[in-house]
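User: Hi! Is it possible to get a structure for several chains at once, not just one? Here's what I have:
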Amino acid sequence: MSAELFSVFYQFADVFAFLILSAAGLAIVFGMMGVINMAHGEFIMCGAYVTVGLVNLGVPLPIAQILAALTAGIIGMIVELLIVRRFYKRPLDSLLATWGLSLIVTQSMLLIVGSAVRGIGTPEGSFAIGGYTFSTYRLVLFFCAVAVLAGLYIIFMKTRFGVIARATMQNAAMAKALGARTGRIYSISFGIGTALAGLCGALYAPTMTLIPTMGATFVVESFVTVVIGGANVLLGTAPAAVFLAMIRMALNASYGQIIGQIGMLFAVILIIRVLPEGLSSVLVRRGR
Amino acid sequence: MNSGRIVGMALLGAMLGIAATGSTQAAEPPLKVGLLEDVSGDLAFMGMPKLHGSQLAVEEINKSGGILGRQIELIHLDPQGDNARYQEFGRRLLNRDKVDVLIGGITSASREALRPIVDRTTTPYFYTNQYEGGVCDASMISMGAVPEQQFSTLIPWMVQKFGKKVYVIAADYNFGQISAEWNRKIMKDLGGEVVGEEFIPLGVSQFAQTIQNIQKAKPDWLLTINVGAAQDSFFEQAAAANLNLPMGSSIKIMLGFEHKRFKPPALNNMHATANWFEEIDTPEANDFKKRWHAKFPDELYINDMGYNAYNALYMYKALVEKAKSTKLEDMRKVIATGDACIDAPEGKVCIDPKSQHTSHRMRLISVGPKHEVTVEKDYGTIQPYWLGEIGCDLTKKNDKDQYTPSHLPSKS
Amino acid sequence: MLKLLDGPQTLGRGRIFWSCFLAVLAGALIYPLFADSYDVGNFAYFLIWIFMALGLCLMWGYGGMLSFGQTFFFGIAGYGYGVLAINMGGGTATIAALVLSVVIAMIAAGILGYFMIWGGISGIFFGIVTLSATLVLAFFLGQTAGPEWHIGSARLNGFNGMKGMDPLTVGSFDIEGSALYYVMIALIVIVYIALRMLVNSSVGNVIVATRENPQRAEMLGYDVRKYQLLTFVIGSGLAGLSGALYTSWGQFITPSSIGLPAAAMPIVWVAFSGRNDLTATLVGSFLLLFGFQTITVYSQQAALVLMGVLLLATVMLAPQGFVLGIGKLVVDWWSRRRRRNESPALADAGRLQSDET
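Assistant: Yes, the chains can be modeled jointly so their relative placement is included. Here is the combined structure:
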C-alpha cells in the first residue's frame, strides 16, 4: 500500500516539476512583463544543448547545467536589448517577433549542429519501493522545481530589486519618476526569465531526446500554466501547476496519456470560464 | 552545410549531363525524379538520410550512363513535415515540373496526402519507408518492409524467448494503432496475452506514469512502437528507472538508430526485424556503406529509410529499362510478370505483382548492453504476402484503399 | 447601400482606390488566359486560406478578440465537408455539403462564443481558451484511426486524415483548376465587399467601439456581448469556409491542419499584413502565402530561417504591418510631392488615414 501511495506522490511530483520548470521562466517574461515569448521553447532548447555540449567536453553535469542556465540568461538579455525592448508598448507584436526568432533559431541549430545529438544518459540511478522502481533523478527535478519557486519568491518579494521590479511592471512611468532605472530592470527580469527556461532545458536534457524542435513540447503546457495562474505570478503559477498536475496525473493513471492531455485542456477552458482573471484573482482576494 | 552540398551536386550533375549529351546520342531530355523528404522540422533526422540515399543513387546512376541513356535530374523539395505542403509540392512536381516519377514521404499521413493527387495522374509513386502495410494502390510501389515481414517474424521469436505476456507502447496514430492491431492478431494466434496497451499522443516526452503502468502489469517483454524524437525519450527514462525489460520493435535501431543517439545501456535488450541496418556485414553491404560514407562523411547512421530510398531509384531504373518506357502502365506490365527485381545491398529484392510491395531479406537483430548489434536469426527472403491473401490483386483491380486486419476488402 | 463601401473603418477610398481595385480584379480575371495551369491552381489554393485571415482580421483587428484557435472552426467545417460529401454522394450535393459545413462551424462558434463572451473571458484568456479548444479537437481526431470511428460511411481515419470525398461539383463538372480559381475570385470579392460594408455600417462602428472601450460602448446602451458574438460567429464562419474549401481542394484533411503550428499561422498572416484593415489583410496574406511557398521551394533548408527573418524585420521596421507600412510610405511620398506643387490643404485630403490603436 505504501508503495502505491509513494507512487501517487512520485507521479504528481513528476508532472508538477515539469509544469513548474517549464513555466517559471514564462511566468516572469509573459506573466509579469507581458511579452508573449514564442521563443520560450528555444531558450529551453538552448539550455539543453549547452548542457550536453559541455558534458561532452568533460564538464561535470551540475556545473554544465548551471552554466547552461547562465548562457540562456545572457542570450536572453541580448535578445531583450536588440528586439524585445521595442515591443513593451505593443505586446501582440512581440508574438510575431519572437515567433520569427524561434524559426530562425530552430532552423539554424539544425543547420549548424545537425538533426540529432547523442544523449548523455540520466545520472543518479534508481531505487525500488514495493514492486516498483523509480528514477532518483526525477525526484531531483522535483526538488529543483521547489527551489526555483522559493528562489523566485525571495528575489521578487524580499529583495530591493524585487520591489523595484514589481513597481516597474505595474507602472513603469511612475517607477521611473521615482528614480528606478526601468530599462535595466526590464533587461534583468527578461534575463532571469530566459535563464529559468535554460535551466529547464538543462535539467531535462539528460532525460530527453535532443532535437532542435524539442522546445515545442514544453510550450503549450507552460503558456497554459501561466495563463490560468493569472496576473500574480507567485500566487498564480504555483497553484496552477499543482492543480493541473493533479488533474493530469489522475487522468494519466486511470485513462492513459491521451485523455490526460485532453482532460487538462478541458480543465483549462473550465477554469478560465469560472475565473476569467485566472486563479490568482481568487487567491489574492482571499489573502487580503 | 547541406545547401552547399546540394548546389555542388547540382553543378556536378549539370556538368555530367553536358558531358553525357556531348558524347552519346542527340540531346535526350533528362528524366525528372521528384523527391519530397522532410529535411527540416521534427522528422529531419530521418529525412536527411533519405535525401542522401536518393542523391547517392542518382549520382551513381548518372555516372554509369543514366536510365535508357538518359540522365536523371533530381528535384527535391522540403515539405517541412507539413501535410499541406506535401500536397502543394506534390502538385507542383506532378503538374508543373511534370516529373517522370515521384518518390518520398515519411509519415503515413504524408503518404496518404500524396496518394489522392498521384492517383489522378499516370505517374508512378515510390513510398520508401517501412510502414503499417495494407495500401492497395496501382500507382504506388512500396519499397519498405511491412508487418508480415516484421511482426510475423519478431513476435513469435520474442514470445518463444521471453514469454507470452507483452505490453504495448504505441504512438497514438494510424501507424501505432494498426501495428498494435497486428500484434493483437499474432499474439492471439500464438496463444499469448497482451497485458497492456498504451497509446501515447505524438509529441509527449514524459513517461513516468507509463513506466509505472508497465511495472504494474508485469509483462515478459515490451513492444515499443513509439514514434518521433519526443517519444523516444521513453528509453532514457525507462533506463533511468531501471525498468530492464526485453523490448521488440519494428522501427527502432535500423530506422531511428536510437542505439547511436542514446547513451548505453538505454537500448539494451532491444530487438527488431530489419531488411537493412548499418551493421550488416556482407561484401555488398560493406561496399555500399563505403560509397555512402565517402559521399556523406558526417552521416551518423545509414538507416533503413535512407537505404530504401537508395534502392527505389535502382528499382525504378530496372523497371524502366525492362519496360523500355517510363509510362506507369508499361512498368506495371513488368511488375505483373513477377520479374521486377534488383540486386540490392541486402540481397535480391523483387516487387510482388499483386500488392506492388517489395520482398525483403529479413534478419532479427538485438542490441547489447554496450549498444552493439548482433544478428540473432536470418529468415531469408520473405514475401509481402498479406495483401495478396486478403484479396488485393492489382493486376486485376485497383482498390486505391488501405486495409488493416479489421478493415478487409469487401468480398465481391 | 454602396455608401458603406467607404468609411472610417477601412483604408482606401475614392476614385483612385477603386480604380486600382478594378484594375487588380481585371488582372486577376485575365490571368488564367496566359498563365500556366499549375500556377492558376496554386493561386486558387492561396485564396482558400484568405477567408480565414479575413475572418481573424475582423475579430482581432476590428473586434479586439484575438482567437488563437481559428483552426478549430477550420477543422470542424473541413471534416464536416468530408463527412457530408461522402455521405450525401458526389455531384451537386457537394455544394450543399459546403454550405452546411460552414453553417455547422458557425453554430459551433455560436456555442463556444456564448460560453466565452457571456463568461467575461477576454484578452489573452480568450486566446488560450480557443487554443485549448483547437488542440483538444486535434488530439481527439488524431486517435480516431480505427474503423469504429466513422460517421455514416465516412471514416475519420485518425492522424492519416480523412479522404475520399469529391471536390466541389456542379452536375458532373468538377470545380477545379481555372474554374476553381474563378469561383475563389468571386467568393473573395463578395466576402471582401460584404465585410467592408459590415465594418462601415452602424454595427461595425459598435464593434470597433467595443474594441476601443467595452465599458463605454455598454454605457452608450449597446449590449456589447451580442456584437462580440456576432463578430465571432462571422469570423469563425469564414475560417470554416476556408476549411471546407481546403478539404474540397485536396480531397483530404488531417488533424495536423487543426493543431499547432497550423493554429498560429492565421495570426502570423494577419499580424504581418496589418490587422487593422481588411484590404491590408487580403493583400498581405496572399503575399505571405506566396512568399513562404516560394522561399520553401527555392531555398531548401534555409527557408525557415528566411521566413523568420522576414517576420522579424517586418515587425521591427513596419510596426503597423507590412502592407500598411508600405502603403503609408507610398502615400506619404505621394502627398509630399503634391504638397510641393499644390496647396497643403489638398495634400492632406488625399492622405491615407490610419486608425492607430
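The mean pLDDT of chain A is 87. Residues 2-211 of chain A form one domain.

User: Great, thank you!
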